[in-house]
Design brief:
Number of strands: 29
Helix content: 10-25%
Largest sheet: 7 strands, mixed
Distance between the termini: 33 Å
Number of helices: 8
Oligomer: single chain
Strand content: 25-35%
Shape: elongated
């Protein structure tokens, strides 16, 4: 079970937000590293430094389409007195057998092509007549259309300094440099760098697999017809999306009816693809809150250390919470309340840090800041509870969005921050400085 088993707590103990979060983060451990192909490693965290085996670029190459020449041969060149050079051929990107550029010679060179032996600089094609003898040109004619363009003479109308328009070998990174350090999250640029230095696989902590399951006989899937007393299941969609946003591979399970055996069976079936399980609903004290009943017998109930503890937290919304582990692999499980706002706030405070911990990240929390409260009237908060109000943050100011009700989904959709009201504060006046958790 979780480390809560060592705490001297009774059924009426009111946990603080910090105690509950600490219990989660001291129990959840980063996933074991594995070797993955580059694209499969997107979004994962490196577990070791990556050293550059070959310099980038691996050779001097041209940054322009133009002509590779010697500096002395184009010194003083102008439109009135152009330098006239013999064109000895083409140098294309990927070419291995290179021409030699001698005195009075030039080689047509393409962007990315190796600087040929003897050449000291590159003049852009726009500084030349392109070998056509008709004044400055705007580009090269395709070799397939004009193969003779690689031979004959070229007029150069401007001089060039040594190594102009040349990308030097190792000017990006040098062999032996550290390309990426352990702890880096692999996004598209990092994956591009790994490919560029020849790494086809990389050792990472995998993205955690999170199974999201909502409970309630009243829940109906979107696009289906509502009957009396029914509502659409929004929690499982919101939390699955939130888990993916946090970096997880998330699986959404359709709503499970208020039947303990059905719920227990569903959870046991889902354990095979879960590094973390999240349930929503059924954690309060009602006669149909079956999550407690079901989770007391999930998986191998004789497995030492398994079990889920249900708690009351000194917070609003989200007072009822559950945390522990289930099944033979001791899969962590967080049981969240069913009201949409309670569920989402609980996810941000507790589930998201757990996901980021499984990923092996050092910083698992949303960023926070201080902001000035912009409100029409004072905000009230129950004494002894840490309240989280939805807000819109901009330029150091936060404005409440909607009320404190835990069912206000529309207000949540227009919020990008949580306004934190401490346990010892019962009223916040407009203009007060408040702590804000930034959600996006």
């Amino acid at each position: 079970m979780s480390s809560a088993a060592t705490r001297a707590t009774g059924p009426d103990h009111l946990w603080s937000v910090d105690e509950h979060l600490e219990d989660i983060l001291t129990t959840v451990r980063p996933l074991e590293p594995i070797e993955l192909n580059l694209l499969d490693a997107q979004g994962c965290v490196l577990v070791e430094d990556v050293t550059v085996p070959v310099s980038l670029p691996p050779f001097d190459n041209s940054s322009m389409d133009g002509y590779a020449v010697r500096v002395a041969d184009v010194a003083g060149a102008s439109e009135e007195f152009p330098a006239v050079l013999d064109v000895v051929g083409d140098v294309a990107a990927g070419q291995a057998d290179l021409l030699h550029v001698g005195p009075g010679q030039a080689a047509r060179i393409m962007t990315g092509a190796p600087l040929p032996p003897g050449a000291e600089t590159v003049v852009p094609v726009e500084w030349t007549d392109g070998g056509l003898g008709e004044g400055p040109v705007t580009g090269m004619r395709a070799r397939s259309l004009a193969p003779e363009g690689a031979e004959g003479h070229v007029h150069v109308y401007r001089s060039a300094e040594a190594r102009a328009h040349v990308r030097a070998m190792g000017s990006d990174v040098k062999a032996g440099d550290r390309a990426l350090e352990a702890g880096t999250v692999l996004g598209p640029p990092q994956i591009g760098l790994l490919a560029a230095i020849g790494r086809g696989t990389v050792r990472v902590r995998p993205r955690p697999r999170v199974v999201v399951l909502s409970t309630g006989s009243e829940l109906v899937q979107p696009d289906e017809q509502l009957a009396g007393g029914q509502i659409y299941d929004s929690n499982s969609f919101a939390l699955t999306a939130a888990a993916r946003d946090a970096g997880a591979i998330a699986y959404r399970v359709g709503a499970v009816a208020d039947d303990a055996e059905t719920l227990r069976s569903t959870i046991e079936d889902q354990l095979v693809r879960a590094d973390l399980m999240v349930t929503t609903g059924g954690v309060s004290v009602g006669a149909y809150d079956v999550v407690k009943e079901a989770l007391s017998h999930v998986g191998d109930e004789d497995e030492e250390g398994s079990g889920v503890e249900f708690r009351k937290l000194a917070m609003q919304p989200g007072k009822p919470q559950g945390f522990g582990s289930v099944g033979p692999e001791h899969t962590p499980l967080l049981a969240l309340p069913g009201n949409p706002v309670s569920s989402y706030v609980s996810f941000e405070l507790f589930v998201r840090p757990a996901i980021r911990t499984l990923m092996g990240l050092d910083d698992v929390h949303r960023p926070t800041t201080r902001a000035t409260l912009a409100a029409d009237h004072a905000l009230t908060s129950p004494k002894g509870r840490r309240q989280f109000l939805r807000g819109a943050y901009a330029d150091g100011t936060v404005t409440p969005v909607g009320g404190a009700g835990s069912h206000l989904v529309a207000a949540l959709a227009h919020a990008d921050a949580l306004i934190v009201v401490p346990e010892d504060v019962e009223s916040l006046e407009p203009g007060s400085e408040v702590e804000v958790v930034l959600l996006g």
